[in-house]
Specification:
The chain is globular and about 110 Å long. The protein is built from 49 helices and eight strands. The strands form two sheets. Strands 2-3-4-1-5 form a five-stranded parallel sheet, with helices on both faces. The N terminus is likely disordered.
């Protein structure tokens, strides 16, 4: 654009920083070896951060690395959301092109929020419940960098982090924590002297100090010797010692100030040693031509970088004069062309700030108005992804509320679309500030543009303008999503008061705001959210169906499911489904149907609940809606595990993980991985369980989910005999659950404490944990957690030292166990098996050897997918047989061999040791797993139903369909409701790809799926 420009040579030789370059070289070497690295380079303004970074990047490129740089943008008080990350990705896109596109394959629509060049027609559908959107975007960004850094070293640098928007800071922190094995270096620079006590970067720096892979460098000022070398480089001659002393004293070793002072001296201007810092920085600017100074002022107010075409539009200079002015400013090293060659920036931000500070108030407003008018007149003057934010900033700085309010609202919408919720919230706060100052006719032209989360538009004519309550609704949601929960609570409260004072109540909107308050009340420690939801429910009672009505009831049902379960929740969830269907609120309907299925299972109709959630799974499995997919698959796997169908639970978890891929937050992936790990644990596949739980632990976020993973790692550690690790996991999990009241966490963490106490010989503590769990009670839907802890408590009483030490309270404890077991529900055969186990353990605790009880428990567990429990029951059965007398030694030997085989294969060392010790005492071999007198059992026949993907229950239903039974007859035979039977039949028809029951029966007979009745 300018052709060849002779710029003033400033410090052409890189001075000092040998130690810092060596540390950065080691960072690069570690990345080359395959371990991602991070670096933070801090120092005061002018100390040489950018120059050090340039040298590091040059060395990286020389070593074959791909490099990219992005700068944080300061436009007034509004940092562009993700601006440096977008710049980095755009730089990589220019360099790598198709390779980056291939690395982003399948996720282009989501990543296009940061790199619009990836946008295509296959956009992911936005969900109104998409609170995971930002976390998903973070995860996809990390995975993209990992793919790019798989076979090459990639170095990315984010400059001026002290200006970064909050979303950028949080994304950078996520990358520092989450980048896995890859050849990627992420570096950032910041001004250390700008980081005051309340600066938002301060917590970020404190957090990164704890990360092992983050190298933090703080650049110091130059020594006198280094200042002397710098002066010699600039002046192309050895400076006099007096000049060195003078410059060193005035600059205090700051390299940039040394350059400015050297320039003054080099021109023979001794008066350049001015008294004020700002004057020093302005000396060379004031020496420019009038046109060049004018251009510098416009560039200073335009942001970090200003496009050439935009400068041409706003400066009012003829093109030849503009080019001459730019040539002069570049030649004086005041301005520099951008790397892309389409714009200009100041060589150093200190000079830009000095020029900007020197503007008069009216002058600043006039320049910003010119920027805004130019961009509005020609939208191609700035990049499309920056246009809304820059217009909002320009009009706001121009002090024109009439133009600023619409621009700010438009920028807020753009920020939300990029999942930059913190920036959306800040822009909406600015809209609140501008609202009263904007003219009435301007406000009348505004239209609601970004309703979210079932917020109800007013019951008024189409074209009704945005009102203040609408704006408060947007602030309420944005504040919550950005973590400003106190502000979200306050905004919803303000809206409710405003509606009350207006004298025109709108119950639907009021209900929406009460529901929003419930979302943050519990997090803020101001209650459990039930009071707010109750108010919302009362407000919608009797109103016509609407998305808001359905959303409120779905939230109420969800609260009941988590906190107390029960029939009331089922009725409310069912009503929410009907309302959502009527209002065409598809997402709310699906979420409510999942909740209804879970509540149905909790209430005892396990098969009906599973069938309901399974039906939702079929509906969403082919949709690009990761949130509802993950919730459906996660909860389906959980309820299958509760029903004792662990193999199916593993399959569902894996299918869900495959479907969602990288489209969800790490927390959601961790949840599904934990579910899979739990089911693998109950199947005694301990190595596989350990791998999945470790994978979950690597990506888990949040104290509750982290505690859940650690709890199951504790159970696993106990099972394999690592008591010390179990104690560590239990302590961590207990801390994570300290303030949690959910039964699904409180009961099993007590169970882990009980089993750990037994393993350590602390039977008194084990009893206390059991009694605490019994005293707290077992709410509806907690049989999955209640039966094991009751069984473990009974076993602890049987194994404890009470017969030797004596304990007058022991009889009462056993009776409490017996009463608790009697009152617990038995919704599936698995829990009937646990009831038999508890009965047998109580008999053992009372000193009675009852092989019949153990035989009944063994027969029950033999039908369930609980190999470790079955092995333990067989061990106790053998023990009871041996205590009864010698006549049953052969059967006892077979039971011990079977138990030992399972325990050894699973790696359950404590159980294997106990079995081996009993066999040794009884002088029985452990290499005969079956009765030698019995004929060899035939191999299990291959079930042709397996190839059709039918579940065990669906096979039972198909067998009866093939026999010509009606839904009512099937329900009576299988002890399920006719509606559940109907759902199963529908699922079977879909899986067999047939249309009628007759076709299904014919296919079953043709494939010989079932033996003929005899």
């Amino acid at each position: 654009m300018l052709g060849s420009v002779q710029t003033q040579s400033l410090s052409p030789v890189f001075i000092g920083r040998d130690a810092e370059l060596a540390r950065l070289a080691s960072v690069l070497a570690a990345a080359d070896a395959g371990e991602s690295q991070a670096a933070l380079i801090g120092g005061e303004a002018g100390v040489g951060k950018t120059r050090l970074t340039e040298e590091f990047l040059a060395a990286a490129r020389a070593a074959g690395a791909v490099t990219a740089v992005g700068g944080c943008v300061e436009i007034g008080a509004d940092g562009l959301p993700f601006a440096p990350v977008s710049a980095v990705l755009r730089d990589l896109y220019r360099t790598l092109g198709p390779e980056l596109t291939a690395a982003a394959a399948g996720q282009q629509a989501e990543l296009a929020r940061l790199l619009p060049e990836l946008a295509g027609p296959d956009s992911v559908r936005r969900e109104p419940h998409d609170e995971d959107g930002r976390a998903r975007l973070f995860e996809l960004t990390a995975r993209l960098l990992e793919r790019l850094g798989a076979d090459r070293t990639v170095v990315v640098v984010l400059e001026d982090l002290h200006w970064a928007d909050r979303s950028t800071r949080e994304l950078l922190a996520y990358l520092f924590r989450s980048l896995q094995r890859c050849r990627v270096v992420v570096a950032a620079t910041y001004r250390a002297d700008d980081i005051h006590r309340r600066h938002p970067l301060r917590p970020f720096l404190a957090e990164t100090d704890r990360l092992r892979r983050v190298e933090r460098l703080e650049l110091s000022r130059f020594s006198r010797a280094e200042v002397r070398s710098q002066l010699a480089s600039i002046m192309a001659d050895e400076p006099d010692e007096a000049v060195v002393d003078q410059v060193f004293a005035r600059s205090d070793g700051n390299p940039f100030f040394v350059e400015e002072l050297a320039c003054s001296l080099h021109r023979g201007c001794t008066s350049g040693l001015s008294d004020s810092l700002r004057d020093l920085l302005l000396v060379r600017v004031e020496a420019l031509s009038e046109d060049a100074q004018r251009v510098a002022k416009f560039v200073a107010e335009g942001g970090n970088t200003v496009e050439y075409r935009l400068l041409a539009a706003i400066t009012g200079l003829p093109e030849d004069d503009l080019l001459d002015a730019l040539r002069t400013a570049v030649g004086a090293a005041i301005l520099l062309p951008t790397d892309t060659g389409d714009g200009y920036r100041f060589r150093h931000s200190l000079v830009r700030e000095a020029v900007g500070d020197d503007l008069l108030p009216g002058e600043r407003s006039r320049i910003n108005r010119r920027y805004a008018e130019a961009v509005e007149a020609d939208r191609t003057l700035v990049p499309a992804d920056e246009r809304a934010t820059r217009l909002a900033s320009y009009w706001y700085a121009a002090h024109d509320p009439a133009r600023a309010l619409p621009a700010v609202l438009s920028a807020a919408v753009e920020a939300r679309h990029r999942h930059a919720y913190a920036e959306q919230y800040r822009l909406l706060e600015r809209a609140l500030e501008l609202w009263d100052d904007a003219p009435e006719d301007i406000r009348a032209e505004l239209r609601p543009t970004d309703y979210t989360e079932a917020y109800p538009p007013c019951d008024c004519q189409p074209g009704t303008p945005l009102d203040f309550v609408d704006l408060l609704a947007e602030v309420t949601v944005a504040a919550r999503l950005s973590g400003e929960r106190e502000r979200s609570f306050a905004m919803s409260k303000r809206a409710l008061r405003l509606m009350e004072r207006s004298g025109s109540p709108d119950p639907l909107r009021a209900a929406w705001f009460w529901a929003q308050r419930s979302r943050v009340t519990e997090v803020l420690g101001r209650g459990d959210g039930w009071e707010e939801l109750s108010r919302a429910r009362e407000l919608v009672r009797g109103l016509p169906p609407s998305a808001t009505h359905a959303e409120v009831l779905a939230m109420v049902a969800g609260w009941i499911m988590i906190h107390k379960s029960g029939a009331e929740g089922m009725a409310i969830a069912g009503h929410a489904v009907q309302l959502a269907r009527t209002a065409a609120a598809r997402d709310t309907e699906l979420h409510a149907r999942v909740t209804l299925g879970l509540l149905q299972a909790d209430s005892g109709d396990v098969e009906g609940g599973i069938a309901g959630v399974e039906e939702v799974r079929r509906l969403v499995s082919d949709q690009r809606a990761p949130l509802i997919i993950s919730r459906t698959y996660g909860n389906l796997s959980s309820v299958l595990e509760s029903a004792g169908r662990s193999e199916e639970a593993v399959r569902v978890s894996r299918e869900g993980l495959a479907l969602i891929g990288d489209q969800v937050a790490n927390a959601t992936r961790a949840w599904l991985l934990t579910n899979e790990g739990e089911s693998l644990f109950t199947l005694a596949r301990y190595e596989d369980a350990a791998a999945r739980l470790s994978a979950a632990r690597r990506v888990v976020e949040g104290p509750l989910l982290c505690a859940g993973v650690e709890m199951y790692q504790g159970f696993l550690a106990l099972a394999v005999g690592d008591t010390e690790a179990a104690a560590v996991y239990h302590a961590a999990a207990a801390e994570g659950f300290r303030y949690d009241t959910q039964p699904q966490h409180r009961i099993p963490i007590r169970g882990l404490a009980l089993r750990l106490a037994v393993a350590q010989g602390r039977y008194g503590e084990a009893r206390r944990e059991l009694l605490a769990a019994v005293d707290a009670g077992f709410p509806i839907g907690t049989a999955r957690y209640a039966w094991p802890i009751v069984a473990w408590g009974a076993a602890a009483e049987a194994d404890g030292p009470w017969p030797v030490t004596g304990d007058p309270a022991r009889g009462q404890v056993l009776e409490r166990i017996r009463t608790a077991a009697r009152e617990l529900p038995r919704p599936t055969p698995l829990y009937a098996a646990y009831a038999l186990l508890v009965e047998a353990e109580l008999a053992r605790a009372e000193g009675r050897h009852e092989p019949e009880l153990w035989a009944a428990a063994e027969a029950a567990f033999a039908k369930e997918e609980r190999p470790a429990e079955l092995a333990g029951v067989r061990y106790r059965h053998a023990e009871a047989l041996l205590a009864r007398g010698p006549d049953t030694r052969e059967l006892a030997g077979c039971l011990l061999a079977q138990a030992y085989g399972v325990a050894a294969e699973a790696g359950a060392r404590p159980l294997a040791a106990e079995v081996a010790a009993l066999a040794q005492r009884a002088r029985l071999p452990l290499d005969e797993p079956v009765d030698p007198a019995a004929p060899a059992a035939p191999a299990d026949p291959v079930d042709p139903a397996d190839s059709l993907g039918l579940t065990a229950r669906e096979r039972d239903v198909l067998r009866l369909v093939a026999d010509g039974r009606t839904n009512r007859q099937i329900a009576e035979e299988l002890f399920i409701s006719p509606k559940t039977a109907s759902v199963h039949v529908s699922n079977i028809l879909a899986k067999l790809t047939v249309s009628t029951r007759g076709e299904a029966a014919a296919l079953a007979h043709r494939l010989h799926l079932f033996a003929p009745a005899t």
